[in-house]
Amino acid sequence: MTLSLTEELLSKYQSQVENDPRSRLAINACWKTDPLEVCLQRQKVYQTNHVFNHKVESEGRPVCNQKSSGRCWIFACLNVMRIPFCKAMNIDEFEFSQAYLFMWDKIERCNYFLNKMVELAQRGEEVGGRLVSHLLHDPISDGGQWDMLVNLIARYGVMPKKCFPESYSAENSMRMNRILTSKLREFTNELRALVSKDGDDSLIQETLERMMGDVYRIVTICLGVPSKTFTWEYYDKTKAYNKVGPITPLEFYNQHVKTVYNIEDKVCLVTDPRPTNLYGHAYTVDCLGNMVGGRKTIYNNQPVEKLMNFTAESIKAGEAVWFGCEVGKRFAGKLGIQDISVHDFKSVFGVEVNLGLSKANRLIYGDSLMTHAMTFTAVTLNDENQAEKFRVENSWGEDRGEKGYLIMTDEWFKEFVFEVVLDKKYVPEDILAVFNQEPVVLPAWDPMGALAKTV
C-alpha cells in the first residue's frame, strides 16, 4: 500500500494548518526567527544557574576556541590536562598547543589510512564495496577518540601553545582537508593498482614512503613544523620568572605533565543501549585508528547511570572529566543550556521532536551519534547523592553560555552523553576487567565511531 499526495489530501493539510490559531502564530513567529529560539521556554531559562555544590578547585583559563575545525577531542583533553598542570606550576593561565597534536594526528592518520587501503586491497575488498567506499568518503576528518590521544601524546608529547601557536589551517581546516582527501584518494588508486599487479612488499613500502613525504609536506606547510626542542619562559602567580628547556615535547610531557596527569591511567567508558551491544562487554570499530601499530580504540560498554556516578565521583575528588556526546539536540546554543525541556516543540509545531525514539532506537535509525567532546568541571548532587546538573567547559570561545561554560541536566546526560574518560581509581575492578576481553568489532560505519569522523 502506498500514499499518494493528491490535491485533495494536500488541501486538507493546508486547511488544518491555516485553521489552527497556534499554527498561524507559529508561522508568523518563525518567519524571521530561528525556530529553536521560538521554542525556547522562558521559565526554564530563568531557572538555570551556574551554581554547583561540587566543583574542581580551579578551572582552566582562558576559555579555548577551536574555531572552524573539528578538534574538540584534542581541546577537551588538553583542557582536562591543564587544570592539574597549572596547579603544579603555580600559574593562572595556560594553553597546551592544540595545533601540535593536530599536526601529528594528520600525519599519522594519513599513514594509517594508506596502510589500511593496502591491507584491504590485499584481502580483496572491492573499491565499490561498502567498506572501502565508506572509508574513501571521508578519509581525513578532524575528529578523534580518546585512545587516539593516548597514541599521540605517548609518542610525541605536548608543548605550550606559545611555542607552537595556531595557524590559519588549524583554525580553518576545510581547505587543508580537501587537499589531503584528494591526494589520499589518488594514492589509494595507485596502491590498489600495485597490489593488483602483485607488487612486492618492498615496492609497496617504497611507494608508501614517497606518498607520506608528500603528506608531510602538505601538512607542515599548512600547520607549521614544530621545533625538536623548545624553551618555555613564564611568570608564576608570585610574579617570579621561570624557565623550562631546552626540552623536547615528549620530555616536557614525561617530566612536567605526566606526574600530575598520566593519560595512560585514564579509561574510556561508553554507554550504548542497543540490544545487540550488551553492557559489560568490550567493543571496537573496524578500521578506526590513527597510528600504525598504535593502541586500538576500545569501548567498555556500561549503563549510563554508572557513567554519571563515576563522573560525579571524579569531580568531587577534584578531577575534571573528558566526555563525548551528541551536542545538537535539546541544546540552547547561545545560552549554553543542555536540557531536554529547554525547547517546547509541541506548543510550536504540534508534535514532539528528538525524543520520539529511545536512545537505543535513535542510534539504530541514524538519529543520534557522538558529535562533540567537552569537559565536565562541576556537579550538583542532591540529598540522595545523585547528580542533578553538570557544568561543562566547551571549546567554542566565550560567546556562548556563561563565558564559554554550559550547563547540563542529568536527564540530558542520560539521553545524549555516550562516553566519559576517567582515572582508573574511580572505576571498580570488575568494570576495568572488561578491557581484558577480546573486543567485538563493530562495522566501520557504526555510530559509536562517529566522534572520530566529525568535522
UniProtKB/TrEMBL annotation:
Q: What is its EC number?
A: 3.4.22.40
Instruction: List, alphabetically, the GO terms of the cellular component aspect.
Output: cytoplasm
Recall the GO molecular function terms of this protein's record.
cysteine-type aminopeptidase activity; cysteine-type endopeptidase activity
Q: Which UniProt keywords apply?
A: Cytoplasm, Hydrolase, Protease, Thiol protease
Give, as one word, the top-level EC class: hydrolase
Using the UniProt record, give the first listed, main subcellular location.
cytoplasm
Which CDD domains does its entry note? Peptidase_C1B
Name of this chain's protein: Bleomycin hydrolase
Which reaction does this chain catalyze?
A: Inactivates bleomycin B2 (a cytotoxic glycometallopeptide) by hydrolysis of a carboxyamide bond of beta-aminoalanine, but also shows general aminopeptidase activity. The specificity varies somewhat with source, but amino acid arylamides of Met, Leu and Ala are preferred
Which positions are catalytic residues?
72, 372, 394
Q: Which GO terms describe its biological process?
A: homocysteine catabolic process; proteolysis; response to toxic substance
Q: Name one Pfam family in it.
A: Peptidase_C1_2
